[in-house]
Amino acid sequence: MGEDLSAQDLLAAYGIEPEEETADEYRGVMVLAEGAGGAISEPSLGALGAAREVADALGARLEALLPGGGDDEAAALIRHGADVVLLSDAQSEYDPDQWSGALTAVIQSRKPEVVILAASDVARDIGPRVAQRLHTGLIAGAQEVRPEADERLLVGIVPLYGGRLLGEFACPDKRPQMICLAEGAGRIPSADASRQGEIERLAT
Fold it and tell me: Domains along the chain?
């Protein structure tokens, strides 16, 4: 065994079966939010609205990850439907490596079964990066999401061939299920000043 071996190779060499994660370990819905100066972007609010509907259908908690955000943005996310806002210490200005690392680390730690990304340039860039790191799938450009609660499955409805056809896509075998919305998808929820939620500060 003079050559470099991966951890999986070493386990196999000694007859040890690695423990595999199962879908049952994943619960909850997560959305990536973008905001600055106390305001959350409209695409992020649209994604939050879609995520709220999915969380309600699955009977799950909705967490919003806000890189580089502050208390004002966190409070706005709670008013619009988030149960928990996770404040990352990543810089608020988008940095692909930093944001991808932060989102990947939070997903690995919190284990949401669904991750919803907004219809934004940031989300379209970060989505494939994070999905690749997590070895899961990504449904891109969904104009609608449909939760199937019995199977805890999320179906993304994606326009094909210039919108002449609609395709339905799902990721039944991998977790988390990741979906990036199309422009205009997701209904922005009304703000409710009486909503209560949690704010957690993360070091990522």
Answer: 23-193 (3.40.50.620)
